[in-house]
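Notes to self after the Tuesday call (sharing in case useful).
The group wants a holo model before anyone commits to mutagenesis around the pocket. I volunteered. Ligand is zinc ion. Logging inputs and output together so the record is complete.
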Amino acid sequence: MICEPVSSSVFTEVLYADGIYDVLDYCVRACIMEEYPARRCKNCGKWFILTGHQGLEYCNRPFDDKGHTCRDVGAGLTWEKRSRDDKPFMAYRKEYKKRFARIRAGRISNEEFLAWGKRARAQKRACDKDKITLDEFIEWLENS
Ligand SMILES: [Zn+2]
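Result:
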């Protein structure tokens, strides 16, 4: 980067870029000079500059070949991960799907299914609050 006059009255920094990396390098430097806060993207792990509001956790680099950015997929990925780790939720969802299939097969009524869902969610809340163990919750699901 060198300084030179760009018009009769403006003397400023001029970037002669050899390629995209020079441009990126310049942008990073400019951001550091402007003291923009940087944050590590929760999805791809690369640093990005926070220019908008402070709550952003994902960068907007393209992430997949469908053109989604980290920001697009970020919320979904963490939901997937959270639900995988959330064992009471997984147990509930598995049983929910099983019973939902029973309605379609005409083996239980809609009302029975909804009533079960209500009881199951109450049990899940009890499990989330450690009032019953995960094993007890799963046992309840299987026998309810
Ligand atoms: Zn990212």
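Two things stood out.
The first helix runs from residue 20 to 34.
The chain has five helices and four strands.
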